[in-house]
Amino acid sequence: MKYKISLFLLLIFVLNSCQNENEKRLAENLKVAKKNEKIFNNINKAWVFIDEPINEVSEKNVNSWNEWREFLKELGEKPRKTIGAFQKKSTAISKKAMALNNNIPAEFNLPQIKSRISILITKVKMLDLFIHLSAIPDEKVTFLIGEINKELVSLERQMDKIVEKAKIPKEEGEEDFLRMLDTTRAIPNLQPAPFIDKNTPKVE
Questions:
Q1: Are the beta carbons of 135 and 121 closer than 8 angstroms?
Q2: Does 193 have pLDDT greater than 70?
Q3: For residue 159, what are the contacts with CB-CB under 8 A and spacing of at least 6?
């Protein structure tokens, strides 16, 4: 009889423990779900990119520079419903950003444009890295969205400056002067160095 009572008490204890464990697990799952929902809402709210050209020059590039057009198009398509959708979109944006190094129009194939593209790519890749972490730092993700927008504006303004500068007529002789300053085009000094006899006495 005592054995049966002990077994019954043990069974009640085990069932009670299991119930407590289940309640703990449910509470933990609910906490995680609420946290994930908050992260999703923060990212969803901040996920607004400047996907439209901000000036005429950038607009022309949309028509002539395929990589630029594809990149802006990718930015404009906002993901929906899940954090997984944002992760996929982030990876797609990163690939399109990397492609900006290809086929840069000749007039923009300059160090000041390349450096801005490089900074833009770095920030897009950082966004892709952070959004794929198991514990997503939503504050960093939302901050980077703002930074990417700043870099987009900076790049498009630089393009505009280059086009405007090219429109300014050069003064007479300026072209020749600029050519003279270009060290890569300078005529090398082909005259041999004067022969110095080491045995010649030196005057102190």
A1: no
A2: no
A3: 55, 57, 58, 61, 108, 113
